[in-house]
Amino acid sequence: MLEVNDLTVSYRNSWAVQDVSFCLQPGQMTGLLGPNGAGKSTVVKAVLGLIPKASGIVRYASRPLKRQLKKVSYVPQRSQIDWDYPVTVENVVMMGRIPATGWFRKPDRNSYNIVRDALERVGMWNYRQRQIGELSGGQQQRVFIARALAQQANLLFFDEPLAGVDSQTETIIFDVFQELKSEQKTLLVITHDLGESLEHYDQLLLLNKSLIAVGAKKDVMTQENLKKAYGHHLNHLFI
């Protein structure tokens, strides 16, 4: 179990997120929701130690997460990735094996098999020699999902993996997430989608600087909670 207690992050003397607490269970997928600027990516980056936190404790299996980062996989937003970098699909996914093999060791046969399996799971094996920049947005996202699979992590964090993808890619991604759940992996997914896709999640976290609600969809997605999170923008969400 991943436990986050009283997580607070500040930027330039103002709170980005404040006193956020939640738990993530093995075999579950949690959706992290909230408006732009709510601090969703900030929470994930602070949990992973990518940005400093002002206060808070993050523990996995009763030990500090920062000492167990080999067990973690993180897929950032597509906008944070340099798609012009000259690298093949297969090499992108092989990067997921670095925590296991080290930076300066040649991948072994097992790693090549793991990478092939990961690419096949997302339907991208036949594109393995393509440059990553030649792919469509949905295909690029599938490659980075494959990289996360190749890492064989127990904790997986995805920042808006469904943003701008085609319906085929969305189906593939949710199928992969379901497989990961069956393997007792723990998933946290940042999403802006407030529609039918929320049915896929076991737990929802509704955030706007602080945690507004946590739990099942029926308990989180109430009119009162949504108004607290989205304010006067609420009506535009369902047009």
TrEMBL record:
Coiled coil: none annotated. Residues 2-234 form the ABC transporter domain. GO terms for molecular function: ATP binding; ATP hydrolysis activity. It comes from the Bacteria. Pfam families: ABC_tran. Keywords: ATP-binding, Nucleotide-binding, Transport. Gene3D superfamilies: P-loop containing nucleotide triphosphate hydrolases. InterPro entries: AAA+_ATPase (IPR003593), ABC_transporter-like_ATP-bd (IPR003439), ABC_transporter-like_CS (IPR017871), Metal_Ion_Import_ABC (IPR050153), P-loop_NTPase (IPR027417). SUPFAM superfamilies: P-loop containing nucleoside triphosphate hydrolases. Belongs to the ABC transporter superfamily. This is Manganese ABC transporter ATP-binding protein. It comes from Aphanothece hegewaldii CCALA 016.
